[in-house]
Specification:
InterPro entries: IolE/XylAMocC-like, Xyl_isomerase-like_sf, Xyl_isomerase-like_TIM-brl. The protein is an alpha/beta fold. Helix content is 42%, strand content 15%. Helix 4 links the parallel strand 4 and strand 5. It starts with a strand and ends in a 9-residue tail after the last helix.
């Protein structure tokens, strides 16, 4: 297992400077955004039609000894607004095609969320079974929109030798292990998850126990923490819609690794991932509103590098 970085936190820097900075941390794996919500500052989809640009991009990676863990295009490919849906789907498909060209096996995306009917203009995330029309909406979403789209989209990715890691995130139809496995049962084994423990924490799901539920459905992992504030949690619960920058009043906020949970927790997290077959990249994602990107990256890299080194399995004398 090794530490990598999801590079949108360095979007203000040119790609060469990003690669040089990461090498200074002894990090040689990157997750690159290609568009949609993460943006595409360091990985342009225009490379699909420009062989020279693609070759130069690959040369930079090779010169710095850096590999790509995943191409990420988190969006809402089920958005009820046609223009938004088609734009996000275009990015998702082109990301798969670029991953094929680059020899990258994994793309990261959201499941998406439809509206409540064919005439809707905004997504509708159903969070409870009553009044009864909510369950009717949920059934319509999964049967008429989610399943047909993801069966076809998963096949498109598989046909190009790429797998899709869906990030479980509230606001979309896949937000917890149960809905993740439901989608996988529909779309097939080429769909798994980008596992971000921070999203489990704030839903009050034990992220380590959830690894045992997800098993080999884990394709890629984000390294990001969450801090829960009990004094506010009793007022708002976990579905807190206050701005992320209103840290004093929120029930939880995203934190840099080690600032929500200590080394003992992260060691068990890494060990359990390895136990259930994941021995790849921990991709640092910085969304800590109390630390600058520079400070967050530095702290997370130092923290995780020691844990991953300490957790490397040694050759067993009895084998």
């Amino acid at each position: 297992m090794k530490v990598g970085v999801f590079t949108p936190l360095l979007s203000q820097l040119p790609f060469d400077a990003v690669l040089k900075k990461l090498r200074s941390y002894d990090i040689n794996a990157v997750e690159l955004g290609t568009g949609n919500y993460p943006g595409g500052a360091h990985c342009k989809l225009s490379m699909l039609e420009n062989a020279t640009e693609l070759a130069e991009f690959q040369r930079k990676l090779n010169d710095h000894g850096v590999t790509i863990s995943a191409l990420s295009c988190h969006g809402n490919p089920l958005h009820p607004d046609k223009a938004q849906r088609e734009a996000m789907l275009k990015v998702s498909r082109e990301t798969i095609l670029l991953a094929e060209k680059l020899g990258v096996k994994t793309t990261v995306d959201f499941s998406g969320c439809p509206g409540d009917s064919p005439t809707a203009i905004a997504p509708n995330w159903v969070t409870c079974p009553w009044p009864p029309e909510f369950l009717k909406i949920l059934d319509w979403q999964w049967n008429e929109v989610v399943a047909p789209f993801w069966i076809e989209h998963a096949k498109f990715a598989a046909d190009h030798g790429v797998r899709i890691a869906v990030e479980m995130h509230p606001g979309f139809v896949v937000y917890n292990p149960e809905t993740m496995l439901k989608l996988r049962a529909i779309a097939g084994q080429n769909v798994g998850c980008n596992y971000d423990p921070s999203h489990m924490f704030w839903q009050q799901i034990d992220p380590i126990a959830a690894i045992r539920v997800l098993g080999d459905a884990i394709f890629h992992v984000h390294a990001k923490d969450t801090q829960i504030y009990s004094a506010n949690l009793v007022k708002t619960g976990v579905l807190d819609t206050k701005a992320y920058t209103d840290e004093r009043n929120r029930s939880w906020i995203f934190r840099t690794c080690g600032y929500g949970h200590g080394a003992e927790w992260w060691k068990e997290f890494v060990s359990t991932l390895r136990m259930f077959g994941y021995d790849d990249v921990l991709s640092i994602e910085h969304e800590d509103s109390l630390l600058s990107p520079e400070e967050g990256l530095t702290k997370a890299a130092q923290f995780l590098k020691e844990i991953v080194i300490n957790e490397q399995p040694a050759a067993a004398w009895w084998v």
